Amino acid sequence: MSDVAPPDPPQVRVSVGVTGHRQAHHGYAANRAQVEAVMADIMDVITEASKTAPLLLAPESPAPIRLHTLLVDGTDQVAAHLAIKRDWEVINPLPFGRNLNLAINALPENASDARALLTGGPAEDTATNRRAAEIRAISEQAHIFELADQDEKISALFLAKLDAPDDFAKAQDFEQESARRAALAGQILIEQSDLIIAVWDGKSTANVGGTGYTVAKALDLGSPVIWVDPQSPEDWTILYSSESLAVQSQHSDVQDRSETLVQIVRNIVCPEDIPEAGLSAFLDEKWHDKSARLTHAFRRVEAMFDGGGNPFRKLVQRYEKPDEVASGSGAQLLNVTKSLPFSDPELPEKIDNMAMQNFAWADGISSRLSDHYRGGMIVNFILSAFAIVGGILYLPLVSPEQKWIFALFEFLLLLGIVIITFRGQKYRWHGRWFETRRVAEYFRHSPLLLILGAARAPGQWLRGTETSWPEWYVRQSLRTIGLPRAKITAPYLRSTLSALLECHVVQQRDYHSDKSKRLKAVHHNLDRLSEFLFGLAVLSVAIYLVLKGASAMNLIDSGIVLKLSKTFTVLGVFFPTFGAAVAGIRYFGDFERFASISEVTAEMLDAIYSRASLLLEAPDSALDYGRVTALVHAADEVVTSEIENWQAVFGGKNITVPV
Predict the structure, then answer these.
(1) Tell me, what's the pLDDT at 600?
(2) Which distant-in-sequence residues (6+ apart) come within 8 Å of 522 by Cβ?
(3) Beta bridge partners of 196
(4) Would you say 387 and 407 are in contact if contact means Cβ atoms under 8 Å apart?
(5) Residue 119 per-residue DSSP state
(6) Do 66 and 191 meet the contact criterion of CB atoms below 8 Å apart?
(7) What is the tens place of the pLDDT at every residue in 443-472?
(8) DSSP string over 546-609
(9) Sign of dihedral through CA atoms 165, 167, 173, 179?
């Protein structure tokens, strides 16, 4: 044991996304003052609920609330001003690079003004300049994440549209491409937010990148949406699923809605289903630099039966300390992060502190708990077999008066089983292993998501059968990092895609491929040993019966058979007992099913490898954010799938006496 401190806990916060109609929308324009007043009231409720919610982690108050919005005129800019007044952090995931985004959203009426804005200069039109100044004013107080990888293409389409204002085809080309970019930024907004405020007339969800589209997407991804209809903003309501869009909204009393919103916010800060003890235990765990030899029983079984060489090779694992990961297993990825063009200079340190160190901490603790839990069960199976055989071993060896020695031996072994089982249940080896392994696997892949500003949406997190604190802890840790102050370009994407292959996909694919082969061998060899012991049991009984029959026919001395009968009794118990113990170990370990899980995981990762390798061959113009992020999310989904399958196998196998 060493004095290694856990990583710093995350800053607990609430993240809000806002989407809504532009200023030119007739319904919004007609009721702008009422909409703004309602939005202010909603934001006040969120602010107060965040401040008064109990906290599971220090400090005593949550971090500032974050507002994510695309900075379009109308709803987005109103929300940004309201957030700034309330000391919220304003985060702008922009569909384009900063200059192009300003030029498009300043709504210039001619190509000359557009070109001036694209180069950072002023427009000639006063109204256009005013709109541009409004965007600049907010941008100076906001945290900007720019999707600039397709700026050259979008700029050309934008200028072509303005150069030929009567050309419908050119206008349509620009609208379609810009809408697709807005949808990508909207996806980021949803993934980075705990709930969404949407000012929307409720009429259509078909316009890609539009408010209705974003609302439908948010609901599909499990994010609650506060829907404010600009025609009657005071009757705002809360939506929880896409199915709610198909029915007439039932407006409730304002007080009821406010109380529901308070509960939503409080549940973000301090979920009701999180026992504080589980989270505290994770942060208060004692760090051990390496595994304990006495707990290696499960891994020793693997080593003895995987056919991979010396079955008695050293199995001691040295756990990578949190403060070592930056110069160890995480060095390659951190170096990639530091070298990204137009990247956030603070991002590598944040990833190290909040993601990699948390991974190392959870991975080391989980590995040790795994040894305790699985090793403990293997020892229980072995002790149980020895206890049964030891209890009758006196028969051929000593007189009945000395049976107490063997009974004491049996009692001590049974007592050992009780102690192991008691400690395993008292210290929750099984439950804590499950929880900490979930934490570790979420953090393992998270740096690549963080680099791209991507995240798991609210409804995409797994839920444990007993507690969801691992998901909450990881989510809040990643929220602490949030969107980087980065400008996404084709070289940025290419470096990230290369890192996906080198630092994650290839390593995990090869690991699972090798693991699948090893576990198949373990299952096969344990199966053969169990069958062999069963065969010996049949053979020993058969030999005794043959000898007994031979003595009955006076072919051999009956005294010899009588003398050997106790030995054969022991053998008749020994072989099936140890055969059953081996079968029990094989059943408990579920090596075959774990091999299948790893085989499927390796195949899925290999498919991602092929897709990513192909995309790396594409020119910069085809290497866009959407394609790269889809691959990173796909790799993340493989992690989720593996966790689900792994939990399904071991979920009901709590440590217990082997009877």
Answers:
(1) 93
(2) 301, 302, 305, 306, 589, 591
(3) 17, 225
(4) no
(5) T
(6) no
(7) 999 999 999 999 998 888 877 666 788 999
(8) HHHHHHHTTSS-HHHHHHHHHHHHHHHHHHHHHHHHHHHHHHHHTHHHHHHHHHHHHHHHHHHH
(9) positive
**What interhelical angle do 297-305 and 506-552 show, nearest 10?**
80
| Residue spans of alpha helices (H) in 221-269 | 254-269
Contact by Cβ (8 Å): 611, 631: yes
pLDDT tens readout for residues 289-335: 999 999 999 999 999 999 887 888 999 999 999 999 999 999 999 99
Average pLDDT score over the chain: 92
DSSP category for residue 352: I
- Cα separations (Å) of 541 from 388, 537, 572? 18, 6, 6
The residue type at 618: A
- In the block, residue with structure tokens 């959407």: 626
- Name the residue among 229, 654, 264 with its Cα closest to residue 427: 654
Return the structure tokens found at 122.
Answer: 């002023």
Q: Judge residue 509's burial from the number of C-beta atoms within 10 Å of its C-beta, 0-12 exposed, 13-18 middle, 19 or more buried.
A: buried
pTM of the predicted model as reported, rounded to 2 decimal places: 0.92
Q: Residue 57 corresponds to which amino acid?
A: L
Across the strands, what pairs with 16?
A: 67, 195
Give residue 233's pLDDT.
95
Residue whose tokens read 């709610």? 244
- Closest-CA residue to 393 (of 410, 411, 414, 413): 410
Secondary structure (H, E, C), 478-521: HHHHCCCCCEECHHHHHHHHHHHHHHHHHHHHHHHHHHHHHHHH
Q: Over 18-81, what HEC string results? A: EEECCCCCHHHHHCHHHHHHHHHHHHHHHHHHHHHCCCCCCCCCCCCCEEECCCCCCHHHHHHH
Q: Is 145 left (phi over 0), alpha (psi -120 to 50) or beta?
A: beta
Look-up of token digits 């020994």: 574
Q: How many CB atoms lie within 10 A of CB 245?
A: 16
**Is residue 114 within 8 Å of 107, Cβ to Cβ?**
no
Structure tokens at 335: 């170096």
Pairing, β 237-239 against β 487-488: unpaired
Please tell me the distance from the alpha carbon of residue 583 to that of residue 525, in angstroms, as a whole number.
11
Q: Give which of 508, 483, 489 is closest to 642, Cα–Cα.
A: 508
